[in-house]
Amino acid sequence: MNDVSAIVVCLNGLPWLERCLASLEGCELIVVDHGSTDGSLELVRARFPGARVIEQENVGMGGGNNAGIRVASGRYYLFLNSDAWVEPGGVRELVEFADAHPRAAVVGPRLRNPDGSLQPSVRGFPTVWRICTEYYFLRKLAPRSRAFNALYGAGFDHESVREVDWLSGACLLVRSEAVAEVGPFDEAYFMFGEETDWCYRFRRAGWSVVFLPGAEVVHVGGATHGGRLFQENLRSLLRFVATHRGPGEARRLRRLLIVALRLRGLIFRGERGRRYRAGARWLASGDVQALLRPGR
Questions:
Q1: pLDDT tens figures, 138-151
Q2: pLDDT grade, residue 226 (50/70/90)?
Q3: Who's near 294: CB < 8 A, 6+ residues apart?
Q4: Residue 136 burial (10 A CB sphere; 0-12, 13-18, 19+)
Q5: How many CA atoms lie less than 13 Å away from 9 in the CB half-sphere?
Q6: Percent of the chain scored above 90 by pLDDT?
Q7: pLDDT tier at 162 (50, 70, 90 boundaries)?
Q8: What superfamily in CATH does domain 4-121+158-219 come from?
Q9: What is the DSSP string of the chain?
Q10: What is the pLDDT of residue 222?
Q11: Which whole number is the average pLDDT over 19-35?
Q12: Interval 113-118 mean pLDDT
């Protein structure tokens, strides 16, 4: 796969990193390290001496992937999380499909959890309504309703090839020609939302985003950030809505999320409840413009 540049952003990627990189045999391999202290860099240099290693400060997933793009030479960029690995033949399946569909900017595989179960990856673009169906429990109350489940792909079974709004960024094959037209990741998204914004921009420019179940990837999920950074998730939702739906919609979303998270903080106990209460306090600490400032 000499026409594929595989880009892996790493921050303390053990114990999954070796399996991740081994699954990319034949690709131009680019590892962007954001300050690992667990021996990840030593492993890469010992086991994958042909990999190009970029060391830089932690500028987030979008910034890390962009660093890889700047040195990549392939017709396609394969973005793979450091806690994921491609099943045999998966890269070939993605490339063959992309070659046969020249307007596909992004092709994403089916994701599996380590136990073999499906990890849903098809998503709908966020709107105030769709976000509220999640945070106000409407999706759970009406699990078969398309209106209440559009944020999560409206119950798509992940069994057929389908053009979608956006796909989880755990593994994406992206056409370099499309990136040259639309631009790289928006680095304002530190973590979460960068792939959502990118897919939105691709689709708005007339490209397609396609789910391809014939290629499969195992994704541990949350291995690097440990499921933390709930605040960054909220910030990414505000940023997407402010950018693509308008500042008025973002202000409305902020108010609705404060109420929803306070309610959830009352319902749930333990760490989960504390996380929701902290999220509500953060949202109440400033207006949308202030919350979107770096370091806030």
A1: 988 888 888 899 99
A2: very low
A3: none
A4: middle
A5: 24
A6: 89
A7: very high
A8: Spore Coat Polysaccharide Biosynthesis Protein SpsA; Chain A (3.90.550.10)
A9: -TTEEEEEEESS-TTTHHHHHHTTTTSEEEEEES---SSHHHHHHHH-TTSEEEE----HHHHHHHHHHHH--SSEEEEE-TTEEEPTTHHHHHHHHHHH-TTEEEEEEEEE-TTS-EE--EE----HHHHHHHHTSHHHHSTT-HHHHGGGGGG--S-S-EE-SEE-TTEEEEEHHHHHHH-S--TT--SSSHHHHHHHHHHHTT-EEEEEEEEEEEE--STTTTT--HHHHHHHHHHHHHHHT-HHHHHHHHHHHHHHHHHHHHH--HHHHHHHHHHHHHHTTS-HHHHTSTT-
A10: 67
A11: 97
A12: 97
Cα angle, residue 105 at apex, residues 227 and 292 outer, rounded to 5°: 45
* Prediction pTM value: 0.94
The residues, any chain, with a CB within 8 Å of residue 218's CB and separated by 6 or more, are 84, 85, 87, 111, 112, 113, 114
Compute the mean pLDDT over every residue in the chain, rounded to the nearest whole number.
94
| Sequence ranges of the domains in the chain | 4-121+158-219, 230-291
Predicted local distance difference test score (pLDDT) of residue 1: 61
Q: How many CB atoms lie within 10 A of CB 34?
A: 22
Place 221 in a pLDDT band, splitting at 50, 70 and 90. Answer: confident
Provide the 8-state DSSP code for 228: -
Q: Choose between 141 and 25: higher pLDDT.
A: 25
**Bridge partners, 178 (sequence order):** none
Name the nearest CA neighbour of 173 among 144, 211, 135: 211
Strands 166-167 and 122-123: antiparallel
Cβ–Cβ under 8 Å, residues 109 and 217? yes
Radius of gyration of the chain (CA): 19
Pull the structure tokens for residue 162: 């389908």
Q: How far is residue 151's CA from residue 130's CA, in Å, rounded to a whole number?
A: 5
